[in-house]
Amino acid sequence: MSQFNDVSVTREANIYFDGKVTSRAVHFPDGTTKTLGIMLPGDYEFGTEAKELMEILSGDLEIQLVGEDWRKISAGESFEVPANSSFKLKITEVTDYCCSYLTQD
Fold first, then answer.
1. Which of 7, 13, 58, 65 has its CA 20 to 30 A from that of 23?
2. What does the domain layout of the chain look like in residue ranges?
């Protein structure tokens, strides 16, 4: 899906790592939220509260989930991160992403 309809967007940006990672929250009528953002090259670590689905729209990166080896992710691919966890990223080029916050199964 390249466009979201009938949503509201939080005007203020989420800014992390001295502005190297930014996003905006998109709120859907069913109560779900996604963030759309950009990550500049660098190494980052994030924590999660909810389960997340990270869709990489453009760019290349490496990810390491807790207890796993590093793996490469490219544009068009995605990965899930469990709730109450963390993950490390090595961003190798400007990366555009969509993060969906998933309900627990």
1. 65
2. 16-102
User: Do residues 83 and 48 lie in contact, with contact meaning Cβ atoms separated by under 8 Å?
Assistant: yes
Per-residue pLDDT of the chain (105 residues), as tens digits, is: 678 999 999 999 999 999 999 999 999 999 999 999 999 999 999 999 999 999 999 999 999 999 999 999 999 999 999 999 999 999 999 999 999 999 765
pTM of the model: 0.91
CA 25 and chain centroid, separation: 11
Structural domain 16-102, CATH architecture: Sandwich (2.60)
3-state secondary structure of 17: helix
State how far the Cα of 49 lies from the Cα of 43, in Å rounded to an integer: 21
